[in-house]
UniProtKB/TrEMBL annotation:
One of its GO terms (molecular function) is DNA binding. The keyword DNA-binding applies. This is DNA-binding protein. Keywords: DNA-binding. The lineage of its organism: Bacteria, Bacillati, Actinomycetota, Actinomycetes, Propionibacteriales. The keyword DNA-binding applies. It comes from the Bacteria.
Length: 77
């Protein structure tokens, strides 16, 4: 039986060095590739890897960026 192949990148790659294309990050953050491009040009967002004209993000960098923005809610008074 042939093994199915996937053309999409999982939202949770298996290792922190796995690369995700900009479209996968845009889907993860419920935004657009254009917004990510604007943030890159403004020096914002997680580090990225440029291969020819394609942009990729390392999963570990994305997780670190997300965790850096984590805010612990204040306890109820």
């Amino acid at each position: 039986m042939p093994t199915p192949t996937s053309t999409t990148t999982p939202l949770h790659p298996s290792t922190s060095t796995d690369l995700m294309p900009a479209k996968a990050l845009a889907d993860r953050w419920d935004t657009t590739v254009k917004v990510l491009a604007n943030r890159r040009s403004a020096g914002q967002g997680p580090p990225y890897v440029k291969v020819h004209s394609r942009i990729f993000y390392r999963f570990g960098d994305v997780l670190a960026y997300e965790q850096a923005g984590y805010v612990e809610p204040l306890a109820a008074r």
